[in-house]
Amino acid sequence: MSEIDSAPYRIAAQPYYRPVGNEVDLYTAAYAARMPMMLKGPTGCGKSRFVEYMAWKLKRPLITVACNEDMTAADLIGRFLLDINGTTWRDGPLTLAARMGAICYLDEVVEARQDTVVVIHSLTDHRRTLPLEKKGEVVEAHPDFQVVISYNPGYQSLTKDLKPSTRQRFGAMVFDFPNPDVETEIVAHEAGVDSITAVKLVEVAQRSRNLRGHGLDEGISTRLLVYAGRLIAMGIPPADACRTALVRPLTDDPDMQDTLDAAVDTFFG
Amino acid sequence: MSEIDSAPYRIAAQPYYRPVGNEVDLYTAAYAARMPMMLKGPTGCGKSRFVEYMAWKLKRPLITVACNEDMTAADLIGRFLLDINGTTWRDGPLTLAARMGAICYLDEVVEARQDTVVVIHSLTDHRRTLPLEKKGEVVEAHPDFQVVISYNPGYQSLTKDLKPSTRQRFGAMVFDFPNPDVETEIVAHEAGVDSITAVKLVEVAQRSRNLRGHGLDEGISTRLLVYAGRLIAMGIPPADACRTALVRPLTDDPDMQDTLDAAVDTFFG
Amino acid sequence: MSEIDSAPYRIAAQPYYRPVGNEVDLYTAAYAARMPMMLKGPTGCGKSRFVEYMAWKLKRPLITVACNEDMTAADLIGRFLLDINGTTWRDGPLTLAARMGAICYLDEVVEARQDTVVVIHSLTDHRRTLPLEKKGEVVEAHPDFQVVISYNPGYQSLTKDLKPSTRQRFGAMVFDFPNPDVETEIVAHEAGVDSITAVKLVEVAQRSRNLRGHGLDEGISTRLLVYAGRLIAMGIPPADACRTALVRPLTDDPDMQDTLDAAVDTFFG
Amino acid sequence: MSEIDSAPYRIAAQPYYRPVGNEVDLYTAAYAARMPMMLKGPTGCGKSRFVEYMAWKLKRPLITVACNEDMTAADLIGRFLLDINGTTWRDGPLTLAARMGAICYLDEVVEARQDTVVVIHSLTDHRRTLPLEKKGEVVEAHPDFQVVISYNPGYQSLTKDLKPSTRQRFGAMVFDFPNPDVETEIVAHEAGVDSITAVKLVEVAQRSRNLRGHGLDEGISTRLLVYAGRLIAMGIPPADACRTALVRPLTDDPDMQDTLDAAVDTFFG
Amino acid sequence: MSEIDSAPYRIAAQPYYRPVGNEVDLYTAAYAARMPMMLKGPTGCGKSRFVEYMAWKLKRPLITVACNEDMTAADLIGRFLLDINGTTWRDGPLTLAARMGAICYLDEVVEARQDTVVVIHSLTDHRRTLPLEKKGEVVEAHPDFQVVISYNPGYQSLTKDLKPSTRQRFGAMVFDFPNPDVETEIVAHEAGVDSITAVKLVEVAQRSRNLRGHGLDEGISTRLLVYAGRLIAMGIPPADACRTALVRPLTDDPDMQDTLDAAVDTFFG
Amino acid sequence: MSEIDSAPYRIAAQPYYRPVGNEVDLYTAAYAARMPMMLKGPTGCGKSRFVEYMAWKLKRPLITVACNEDMTAADLIGRFLLDINGTTWRDGPLTLAARMGAICYLDEVVEARQDTVVVIHSLTDHRRTLPLEKKGEVVEAHPDFQVVISYNPGYQSLTKDLKPSTRQRFGAMVFDFPNPDVETEIVAHEAGVDSITAVKLVEVAQRSRNLRGHGLDEGISTRLLVYAGRLIAMGIPPADACRTALVRPLTDDPDMQDTLDAAVDTFFG
């Protein structure tokens, strides 16, 4: 069991990550305490990239699971598969991470049914074990193993929330979009546009974020700003680029589209 | 893995597509930026044909998935199948497209459960990877790979909508029926009728489209106009052809049928 | 693939069908245009028999699928089955029909979940292809292939209806019970009763059809009239035959049964 | 296919059945016309036994299916099973009956989901065929084949009813408990009690049947009367026998039990 | 088939059962008449033990099925399993009991979905047969076979009840907790406490049973009294023993716990 | 069967457990009586650790099952798996525990569907047997076997509760967070902080526990206090450590976060 190959899960190159506060120190201490961590924040604000950056920095393999409602406990833990010698066991990503000492990252954890999520409980308290009931084995987690989960508290429905008994197993860090200066720097760097264009794009995004809860579920993310910048860098007229990359994806509501188009025209008209 | 045969997914002949604006340039730039794209517009307005045309023009293979509510994550990603040597893995269309560098087109994406659609998330952000958890492999997308989705925002129920965290990964282009002149040209070309007949058919369609939201979910599509034209070209009396190809398919409501029949009689009576 | 045996799907003998209008010419033109067709009308009015008649007349094989809510996309498209060499693919009826150039008839299509029905979309627009995603094959429809669907718009619940994006792919023909003279001829011919008895049976049916929406979901069908006629031809007293074949099957409501029994007694008392 | 062994489905000995009207002649004619039949009536009034009797009298094998909500189309039609040579097809009871020329009796048909029941449609109209889509075979029904269904219209909920398109395929016969003289004869014959006791038991049952819809879903059936009679014949005090076999099974409602106990005491106190 | 080994289902030693009325004679007669039986009464009042006692007394094997909502018809009847020669049939407990002539005891039958329970119908009327549709076999029940079901009518929800068509197949016996003198004798005998302690425990139970329907679903059962007695016999202070074995298990409601604690203190304070 | 290896389920080292009352004696007596036990109390108050401690003290193996809504009866009991010789049976954790004489601990039992939980019934009354219906075996529990269940009565929804027929099989012990002195000792011991810091952390927790039912489902658990202490011990500023480990995990509600942050600032500001 000690020869599990972690190479496919190693982060080869340093991911681009722009710290915005003490989050790196805090996570480093949390990892040292092997405290399971919960990252909260809106879509596209950089939670996934932060985990990649920390896995790279801490030199740990990273196993990411994109949670969805079809996900079963077996998808996390593993299952028996049939081959020429009969059924053989194949570890799921959670089990693999526990054996290997990886950071296991459950992305958008509230998308999973919370009845599935409870399988992480015994790995996230003092036991740090995972019973493979179907296999009759109890896996002791590797000393370097840690569970990280992320979700967006902003638009979850009432029926999708973590159970209290799950929450009580995690420390939590709150992420948000970076402040305008930092975001401008990120957009300019990733999209390859000048800082004047980047400033304008960030202004448009700010407007949209003020509409959260007033007709929009979410505001324009940093990720979409980078896309808009790339279109502009390729010669698409800025207003067309903004409509394509920022406004039309966000909403089907004609009034809301008009409002956002007006914001685009203010800066790029 | 590098020898995947993309031939079955190549578009052999140039598809008939009549541009109506700057959509070809915009898509070309979006593809160059590898921005995932979302095509919005009513049924039968030409979204699918546009994607075929662009795949042909960009010389990329095209893998189309007709989304439906039964579709599972495994239908997109792949699954283990049993053969004489036991279970072997078979890539799903999304995985195949990611390996091959194809355009992967998820047609009518809101028909799928949105909990299934989240499997595209890691392919549509900076990661451009697809974890095959059941297989223990992480697929890096080919540099030419792109995801395109389409849907009709017009008649979706409240319970069928894209998640904000999905929307935020796409640029968006809006399609509608072509303007009357262009539509007349298309109907005449595809149905083989004279332009006077084509003009009248387009007039009937316009009337029906004004009834959207007033008893009709959708107006008559260009596709149905072509069918009506073909029946007329084969000698079916035009009013019969219109009833068969335009009115009866659209609605079971007797009042709405009378209204549409009257429109037919205005032009073909 | 070119050697598919269509013999089991050929209509050997000319089915008895009594045209009531221009439906044969209209369908012939629609088939020539390879327009997918939708047949609408009440239970037992002859839609299925019309399709059989046209398949016989056009010399095409006919593959019928009785739709039901359990039907999955795999039931239409096909699936992998296990045999001694492992899993082998077996075409479903839709795939088989597409390869063979058959008329594929989806009977009572609204009984299927509409999320299943969307698998016919790519076969019913300009593409005329069927992607077999699980098999990694794209089937090009045979030039003679056509899809026909039927349903009864009369008693469908609000939750069972075709999607607009499905409707927009079909021409439509409306069927109803034949007029009294034609129906009398049919009943006399098929049941082997004299025309006086046939006239009376048709009169009883007319009365019941006037009760549609007033306590009855449907009126007495031609098919039940033929059964009643056969019982009479075997010597069962006509009133007993009518109660058994026309009244008792139609409703469990005692008041409605009394009303219909009175109609029977008017003609056969 | 012609060598199917029908022996296990033959009724060896004449079942005890006491005709109460013209039901034997009517059924004989219906069978001669191969009209599918529907038997309606309360639980325990003799529908199942009547079918057995007619199968015996007509010298046809009888295949009974006890319908339930878990029943799938495959349970009726058949499925592929795996054996040493791979998957082999096994006919379901409906298919077996169609090949063999049996009477196929779907007992308590409304217990099945009506979406399952539609698989009988093509066997119950002029087609008399059963497409085995999974197998790629179309079974032509044996000339002696007939479908019979039964149900109890008395206590069905609104959500459980036959579809109109199913009803329109059947003739119908209505059953009820026999009249008191006949029922007394049956109870005395089957339970082995004297006719005075049998009369009293039938009187108790009559009282309970008057309570249908007034606190009871059903009255006491002939079957329970026979059980009560047998307990009495074995020396159990009649009042105890009636409480055990007639009252306690019927209801958990204390008031209703008191009412029925009083009826018992009136005749056996 | 005649060599089925019934040894594992034989009751080796006489179970402790304390008759409280004529239930042994009544059941003996019911079994002699092969009348299916229904045992009604609250949890823990001795229904299961009574069946064991009768099976021992009548020298019949006993096959018990603990009903639950996941139970399918196949769990009762049997299924095909795969072994080295392909699929082989394995009888379920109901089939096994029918072949062996056992008493088949469906414990807590309303926990099963009533659509599953209908599979017992043909074994509980004059037919005494069980069609194994998947296997193509009709099992004739052994002459000694009998079906017994139990349930608790006290706290069943409205959605969980036996169908009338199921009820009509059974005789019924009503059980309740024994009278105080008998219950005291049982508690003293099974827990090994003196009769003064047993009397007090029974008094506490009586109080709780008066609260049925007034905040408690059920009162304290004889079984819990025996547990409390055993704790006392091991030296646990009686009030602690009562809180642990009688009060805390019964309810999470603090007010109800106070009421019951007060009853405990009255007798053991 | 007697050679089951219990070694993987033995607790090697004495778990840290700080008794807070007579719970050790009470459980010891309950185990001696083989009374099934139910442990009630909030998340993170030490129920799981108590069971581990008792298993270690009583020298019994411990098999823990983390209950979840996907859990089926087969997950507890066992199932047939396919290997090179066909299907072989694999015991589930409940069956394994019953054979081995382990303590079987169903953690968070109300997370399971209560229809699954009924499979423990025959192991938790006088029978102490487990019928393996699919295998045709009746397992007699080892004399040392005991079932223990836990749950949190505080935040269960109305739809998640134990059935009365399940409750009546268990003795019950109520757990809560330890008193402040004991909790301070635990936090200081496990986190490695001085007692002044530990006192303050416990004070913050007390405040949060007073908010239960007033905006919080649960208060801060001892487990989270230990995490906060570890972060402080690693040099993270105490207020940051408390926000990360105590406040942010507990709630997404901004008002509630402000209230808790204020409590943190009172003690660590």
TrEMBL record, chains A, B, C, D, E, F:
InterPro entries: ATPase_dyneun-rel_AAA, CbbQ/NirQ/NorQ/GpvN, CbbQ_C, P-loop_NTPase. GO terms for molecular function: ATP binding; ATP hydrolysis activity. Gene3D superfamilies: P-loop containing nucleotide triphosphate hydrolases. Pfam families: AAA_5 (PF07728), CbbQ_C (PF08406). Keywords: ATP-binding, Nucleotide-binding. It comes from the Bacteria. Residues 183-266 form the CbbQ/NirQ/NorQ C-terminal domain. Residues 37-170 form the ATPase dynein-related AAA domain. Belongs to the CbbQ/NirQ/NorQ/GpvN family. This is Nitric oxide reductase NorQ protein. It comes from Rhodopseudomonas faecalis.
